[in-house]
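[Solved] Which block belongs to which protein?

Original post:
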Amino acid sequence: MFSLTLNGTRRHIRDTSPNTTLLDWLRERGHVGTKEGCAEGDCGACTVAIREDGQWKAINSCLVPLPAMADREVLSVEGLSEPGKPLHPAQQAMVETLGSQCGYCTPGFVMSIFEAGHRSDLKGPENAWKLDDQLCGNLCRCTGYRPIRKALEQVAGTHPDDGFQGESLPIKALSYQAGDERFFRPSTLEALWPILDQHPNATLVCGATDLGLDITQKGVRYPTLVSLEALPIGGLERTDTGWRIGATLSLADLESAAPLPILTRMLRYFASRQIKHRATLGGNLCTASPIGDSAPVLMALGASVVLASKAGERSVLLDDFFLDYRKIDLQPGEILAFIDVPHPKPNTLRAAYKVSKRREMDISAVSAAFVVELSAGIVSAARLAYGGMAATTKRACETEAMLIGKPWNDENLELAIAKLDFTPMSDHRGSAWYRTQVAGNLLRGFYAETRDTPVPELEEGHIGTVQVSGTVEAQP
């Protein structure tokens, strides 16, 4: 048995499959304001809020295995106000701005606006883009976003006196079983190793934003799930040589900390806020998707992963971690514990890019990250990493070799682009020809964008993955 707090009431759960999602559990118990739209984290109709680290965070309930919410405080739209009492400010704002029409998406929007009301970083013109980011994971098909955006602006950062202030509940160790299915959540590494020994075929999980898709879209039922979420591997530490990033640190927290501009730039369009509240850097690497957005950045920076087991730790350069399509160098009994990212050297140009059909909430057709070190105008080192161009994230080694030792100029850049050593596949996101052209154009854009700014950041109102002031001559 385990417990969670739903809308202020403690609920005890037993005999429920660990593969049950939070969304299904809510709806089965009459909390039908939380909707199922896509069941894959794209539409936001299932948005609820959880209290974590003293803050309310919007998440997709359709992707969360129910036991992952043990010891947590969950708030659904029904919990915002009681019948016959005034609406919550997030609900009232949607009424006043006429932000609801058919109403199907409305509860999800309300919960995202609820989170915005309790945020402290939404005021000021420099943070205007965060309002778009707050709602990019919520889809409305009939009202249009202008009135909903007005509702958001009315509530964002106001910290309403709505009775939902307070501290988070501590996340404890959990061992839960229903039928033949098990869910473990150890809180120490010492407790983890015996579990992995006893259950060598267990599936490791943390945020479940990828695993949740297997449950909702493929009907997978995992016999044994081992959550790493409560382990002490979620911090962020600056060292003399670089940054050590905990594998279970959420992408939202990593983005907020902004340790590396090149990584923050990619995280901005990594996914919706609901996804980033649950997704982790370690999880994104271990899924080994060839279009995973963090891998090109970390590979370009020369990052290594620290793999831990009861025998100790070993460090593997990220270049060597990806073995093949969806295959990684993770041995039985090991977990990815940390990512070590060295500090970039002085005089380096650094930027990351993502090309997709939509600006927000889309999978990359091609992603890339480039780190080029210059010495008196000569390329002394280069790491050019691409996603979407092969079965794994890979560096363009021949292109790098063509650049090193030569002046950083248009002519040498074109010679190097001609050596891009990839044979990408064609699929519904782009043909092989398209991907090849994009890969070269991103490197050209990087050259143009870093002429004046070695480490560019995204502008507030940008509309393209490459931002260049003035006119740049088109390449043939």
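(Second protein starts here: sequence line, then its structure tokens.)
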Amino acid sequence: MLKFMEYSENKIARNTSLFTLALVLQKLISFIYFSYIAVKLGAGNLGSYTFALSFTTIFAVFIDLGLANVLIREAAKFKDKCQQYLGAVMALKIPLALLTYTATIIAINFLSDKELVRQLVYLSGLIMLVDSFTLTFYAFLRGRQNLQFEAIGTIIFQLIVFISGVIIVNLTQDLRILILAILIASLFNFIYSGILLKVKLGLKFFKAFDKSIIKSLVIFTIPFALAAIFTKVYAYIDTVFLHQLAGPEAVGYYSLPYKLTFSLQFIPMAFIASLYPAFSSYFVSNKQLLAKYFARGMVYLGLIAMPVTFGVIAIAQPLIFKIYTAEYLPSVLALQILISSLPFLFLNFPLGALLNACDRQTRNTINIGITMVVNIILNLILIPRFSFIGAAIASSVSTVLMFVLQMIVAKQIVVINYSFLLKKLGVSLLAGLAMYLYIIYLLPAISFIVLVPIGALIYLLILWLFKGISKEEVVIFLQSVFKRV
């Protein structure tokens, strides 16, 4: 029994590490690729390209409706019922996929009179369909703790997009051909995950389905569906509004800083991968340790977010100019506004993990829904007046609102040590501000490439001098990230 438990724990740790590494590499390759095509395409073309993908991403949630999360849970609990679940899900998703794609076509024909935009959405809709079934296939593999295969598929997918996309964008500026790079990669991932499902789990795709299982899946998926819809709309509706109210060029100017800011989410995602199981365990067994590790998670992510925030605000203009050319200089202010909410974005991860781990997932969904509604209202008010700058303000305000709503619930679950949090985060704020002033003062004379590492050292030195972090905390942080404690 002990050997089995050790094997299971090692398997979980290995899976988590592999998948986290794959996620980090995928985000890195994706960001480099997006930056490359941004320079090649220009703001207007980038805006049309981004809009098509964002538009179909919102509709994609109506195919899955949170079923993937339910399947992961059910496949882990009832391994002998995987074939029945697959049959039921295929019976649900095939008509949902056809209806959703039809709705997407109708919606884009209603919203846009530009033939190119329509064609891009038609192609992006195919990607939406393929990816939806791939998500289902991987859900079964996740339920059986086979994350290493998904990790490999994720990396290969992104490499296909990168290599084929770079070749295509250098041969032609046709956005329709460029979007085929993603479709090719999606088809690979679909076939790859389907083969794994058949070979590793021995499942058949089309088999008689049980109506009772379909009914149970529909009931189980309702809270997941609401959370998924709220999250997708919240994440992508600003791009749709911008395209409709301000045009594709505004989308291009906005999507670059948005991508840069939110690509950094892999940092808290990797960290929460190790914290979430601990939250779940300590909620049942030890509330004091739950409070302790929650506070540490908040502090560590705050310490990471603060120098990134102040550093990017300081070097935003030369960074955009040097890497993305003068065409994207209008994006500087949007980047500074979006990155200013990064500490709250990072802190929302341990807050969300705490709520989900401690049976407050319904309240978490309500908070996401409230934030989504506020975000939509702010976008409708601010975009007509301030274009993409208004979208950046709406996004940052929504991120802060989400933090406030989650904190209200968090203090009902654990006793929050406010003095500990304020002291640690206050010192990091002071250190970040000192780093910012140093960079701003020397930026006219010295390249930002030289100033950034020196600024990081200044931040760490001040943090150390004012006891913002101790040697013990550094060791615990490294262990939590690399050893999955």
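Accepted answer:
You had them paired correctly. Confirming on the second one: The chain has two domains: 1-245, 264-485.
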